[in-house]
Write the structure tokens for this entry.
Amino acid sequence: MSTERDSPMDGNLYALPSPAADAFATYCGGNAGGSNETCVSLAALPGAEASFVIRDSKPEGAGKELRFTAAELDDFATGWAKTRGLAL
């Protein structure tokens, strides 16, 4: 369950400003399409404790963001790992 300290009071993470470009950590995969074609970037969202921004590195996804609370990302990560048979 989300609490006030986990997200903005109105619950709209998209109402908050984006993090600075240098705040993002980049996680890359197999690089099948070039050096940045399989990367995803993640940064903490300023103004909301335990909330994050995810960006795609592909040119088609430039400027697009997905925003999640830590609980939402945790649920996604554990669910994804289970469906892929990965151990955490």
Q: What stands out?
A: The first strand starts at residue 25 and ends at 28. The chain is about 15% helix and 25% strand. The beta strands are 25-28, 39-44, 51-56, 65-69. Residues 19-84 form one domain.
